[in-house]
Design brief:
With 181 residues, the chain is of the alpha+beta class. The chain has three helices and ten strands. Strands 1-2-3-4-5-6-8-7-10-9 form a ten-stranded mixed sheet, with helices on both faces. The radius of gyration is 20 Å and the shape is globular.
């Protein structure tokens, strides 16, 4: 009898964390309102895609972890930017829901811990290779490949940059041209 009780308790202790993780990850799509309600994070676990939208609609960014690309649509400029995903700077896919939930009521209360500056490299002709989410978001818009630059290298901008904060943890800055020092 004691052996049965001990075995049952041990199985319960071992299976509880595994089952908790399994049931947390079964939500294929999850939507979280972030940063005081001015951003919405939608997570698709099936495709490893995160979509963050500014509620006013001025920008949307798609982080495709499966293909390794980031796409951003700037509505006022009718333009999209696509870059390789810097996995050393962006939070991991599995950490996004936790980070978003921590920032649900912090609109504008802190500066992002990191900022990435991008500069246009060239126009994109074939959007389909960047994944269905980026294709759907950018289809019909001027779309450019952009590359990340170190802020110390970035000296001059002919036109103003478009800057926004994602989840109050990461700043994105898209600039049209630059001159290296």
């Amino acid at each position: 009898m004691k052996f049965t009780i001990v075995t049952t308790v041990l199985l319960g202790l071992l299976l509880t964390p595994a089952l908790a993780t399994y049931f947390q990850n079964t939500d294929t799509n999850r939507q979280i309102t972030v940063a005081g309600g001015y951003q919405i994070l939608t997570i698709n676990r099936e495709l490893d895609v995160a979509i963050i939208q500014e509620k006013g609609g001025s920008w949307t960014t798609v982080w495709n972890y499966d293909r390794g690309f980031v796409g951003t649509k700037v509505v006022r400029d009718h333009v999209c930017y696509v870059s390789r995903m810097n996995r050393n700077v962006l939070p991991s896919f599995n950490a996004l829901p936790t980070l978003a939930e921590e920032n649900t009521s912090l609109k504008g209360q802190g500066q992002p811990t990191k900022e990435i500056t991008f500069v246009i490299k060239r126009p994109i002709r074939d959007l389909k290779s960047y994944g269905p989410d980026i294709y759907a978001m950018c289809r019909g818009l001027r779309t450019y490949v952009v590359y990340e630059v170190d802020r110390s290298e970035y000296v001059y901008v002919q036109e103003p940059c478009f800057k926004f904060d994602v989840l109050d943890i990461l700043g994105f800055k898209y600039c049209r041209s630059n001159t290296k020092a």
